[in-house]
Amino acid sequence: MTTKVLGKKMLIGGKWVDREQTISVFDPQDQTVINTVPRATVKDMLFAIDEAKEGARVAAKMPVHERIRIIHLAADYVEEHRGIYATTIAREGSKTIREARGEVARCIETLRISAEEARRINGETIPFDQMPGHENRLGYYYRFPIGIIGAITPFNDPLNLVAHKIGPAVASGNAIIVKPSTQTPLSALLLAEAFEAAGLPKKVVSVITGSGSEIGDVLVTHPAVRMVSFTGGLDTGKDIAHKAGLKKISMELGSNSPVIVLEDACIEEAAEACVPGAFSAAGQNCIGVQRIYIEENVYDAFRNHFIAKSKLYKTGNKQLETTDMGPLINEQEAIRVENWVEDALKKGANLLAGGKRNGAFYSPTVLEKVPNNATIAHQEIFGPVVLLYPVKNLEDAIQRSNAVEFGLQAGIFTNNVDNAFEAARRLDVGGLMINDSSDYRIDGMPFGGVKGSGLGREGVKFAIQEMTEPKVIQFNLKR
């Protein structure tokens, strides 16, 4: 792999280009500069969109077997260079090297699924003679690519979340322009390199590095961009929805996920699952465990197990195999989390573990008795902090779980199937994990939420549905 591509150039319309103005990419662990990427301009984005028009025409004409072949080759490329991909993820972001390897494995899986789903973009025959007077008509519908997709991706999964945009887009015959996070752009550029090495026609994929405030509005509002796929925060999502105009919008906007622990559950297993569910990726995880509602009879037992396991969670150097948790993405985010915890403590919360900051590092933190007027009680923490609450029963837990603006995923621990189905029916979420924490996902399942957690669904098959439209074909057969 060429280090010249990594971090120094961006891919626009099939060409790797640099710019005089650059953005520095830092390792949040020690603030060392890893590399620089071009600071794209409005002119660059407009050029990328013009090039993508041709890319969309080329992509739509690609036979399905070619799409399958190219995506598999891209997955092969990532697998062959997985060490470099993992190191890049671990350096530019918050993940430990072990977490980064896991993300690379998931990226490969996402691409493999995309290749397989390309062969399953099916339509159906339509019985037009279901209406009297239409006896001579027959037909069908098929799904066609929508054209150009604009994708905006966050820092917390800098490789696999980009794969979740590019893989389905290529599989469904679209062109795509990716604007990755300025904090973690290197992994996205590496994935673009994989598709180039796989022989993807030029202009089908562009990866543009730059400030969202400078180039984001162009991508979102341009009439040639027929869909915006965004993963990020709620406020930004609302702003994009307001500006985008008449086009498809797919959004995953985060959450403050609840987990319910009932008295009939295995308490130790529940705690064992919820600790990494809360603290993996330094808590910067949209489905990470934030609120845990525990039935009163087992509250003390669960709390004791959870605190003990939290204190064993090792924070430190991301590159060490023994490290469980690295820093937040930057010191500013760590200070924000620290301030939110201090706000909760001032309002009456109890600190059970953690609560210490060192630069961008923030220790795994457990709070209880957090009042509803604390910011941390109703907003997405996006940091390594979890809140424990005793509840009277399942009804109490469901009501409190639903009493927020978000609804992405939830978890419940119970050995009572009736309780599990009751929670499945009544929790306002896009997914419920039974006897697992909220932090569970495979790349083939539909992924998305309700309320402030987003619009539409990701997961390869379901993203392809979002990225295509049905076209009806009808024949009037004359006798």
Automatic annotation (TrEMBL):
Its EC number is 1.2.1.97. GO terms for molecular function: lactaldehyde dehydrogenase (NAD+) activity. SUPFAM superfamilies: ALDH-like. It catalyses: (2S)-3-sulfolactaldehyde + NAD(+) + H2O = (2S)-3-sulfolactate + NADH + 2 H(+). Keywords: Oxidoreductase. InterPro entries: Ald_DH/histidinol_DH, Ald_DH_C, Ald_DH_N, Aldehyde_DH_dom, ALDH-related_metabolic_enz. Pfam families: Aldedh. Transmembrane segments: none annotated. It is an enzyme of class 1 (oxidoreductase). Belongs to the aldehyde dehydrogenase family. This is 3-sulfolactaldehyde dehydrogenase. It comes from Ornithinibacillus halophilus.
